[in-house]
Design a protein that fits this description.
335 residues, alpha/beta, Spore Coat Polysaccharide Biosynthesis Protein SpsA, Chain A, 12 helices, 40% helix, 17% strand
């Protein structure tokens, strides 16, 4: 079992991630840990040396190609792609995630869901439940494994795992870096997906690879536990990445961001993408929507929706003015 993490100044969180792997109820001699590092200047590499983690240099710097590099370097039959701010929740996480592969030879990959700690702040709780507010507005119930059953038909189901009938035009939001487990013999990542983790999953759906959801397995994701500034910084980077006027990016000249996935986005979702900046900045409409869905679904994260949506939409308008109107350069260095 190989665990691949793309690192970059990850010292603030990587120890907890590493600890959750080392505490697994699984033979330690069968676990390989790879950090694909994009040039850390903090104590990340010192920690790698201390815990005897295998380090691979990431010449592409960014996280997505880092996972692709690590996947190719992994020596095990199964590879888990894990964010530096992720932690495995269950001590038997590996065994839970392996069940679909053991019980059905046609399973090519499996994924868990994100969970929250009691100590997580409101931003982390919201993002772990709904992803970012823009994705939630566009993708709805298809943005989180916990609600996939409301959108997709189950084509295989056991008490421990389920395979949904994913289709490209109504695809879910799934990325490699959130605990995605891959059987190496079943799929080799194409280089045209190296700058977009979602595109890699879409490529698997396109090729009709069977991907299992394991509801008993979950990851903690300490994505925004620092402050609102952390969200603004990450969100601004994501917006700039998608507003970049270049058609291709990186050494292999692949399309990136929304440009790479546009062919798989339905007309309805494209319309919602256009509406979202106006929806978010209105504030009052998200308030009514939050009340409606709180009554419908009972999820308290809806109380945060108007505030985080307004911040998100404000950043979009800010970057549109700065990049498209004022012709300033987008921020595409790793945040």
């Amino acid at each position: 079992m190989s665990f691949v993490t793309a690192t970059f100044n990850s010292g603030w969180c990587i120890k907890e991630s590493l600890k959750s792997i080392l505490e697994q109820d699984y033979p330690k001699d069968k676990i390989e840990i790879i950090w694909v590092d994009g040039g850390s200047t903090d104590n990340t590499l010192e920690l790698a040396k201390k815990y005897k983690v295998r380090v691979v240099k990431n010449k592409f710097i960014l996280g997505d190609p880092g996972y692709a590099i690590g996947g190719e370097k992994a020596k095990s039959d199964f590879v888990v792609f894990m964010g530096h701010d992720n932690q495995l929740v269950q001590n038997n996480w590996i065994r839970l995630m392996l069940k679909p592969f053991i019980e059905d030879k046609n399973i090519a990959a499996a994924f868990p869901h994100l969970d929250n700690k009691d100590s997580d702040n409101w931003l982390t709780r919201y993002v772990n439940r709904f992803t970012d507010p823009g994705n939630h507005f566009v993708y709805g119930y298809a943005n989180n494994p916990l609600t996939f059953e409301k959108v997709y038909k189950a084509i295989k189901k056991t008490k421990d795992w389920v395979v949904f009938d994913f289709i490209l035009k109504n695809h879910p939001i799934l990325e490699f870096e959130q605990g995605f487990m891959l059987k190496k013999s079943a799929y080799r990542r194409d280089k045209n997906t190296w700058y977009c983790g979602i595109l890699a999953v879409l490529d698997m759906i396109k090729k009709r690879k069977q991907i299992a959801y394991v509801p008993l397995a979950s990851n903690y994701h300490a994505t925004l536990n620092k402050s609102i500034r952390q969200f603004i910084k990450k969100h601004r980077w994501a917006i700039d990445y998608n507003l970049d006027s270049r058609e291709t990016f990186g050494m292999y000249k692949q399309k990136f961001g929304l440009k790479a996935r546009r062919q798989y986005i339905s007309s309805g979702r494209r319309l919602r993408q256009l509406i979202y900046p106006f929806y978010g900045i209105s504030f009052i409409i998200p308030c009514f929507r939050a009340i409606y869905f709180y009554v419908k679904d009972g999820e308290k994260e809806w109380f945060y929706h108007p505030f985080i949506t307004f911040i998100s939409a404000f950043i979009i308008w800010q970057e549109v003015i700065r990049i498209i109107i004022l012709r300033r350069n987008p921020i595409i260095d790793r945040y």
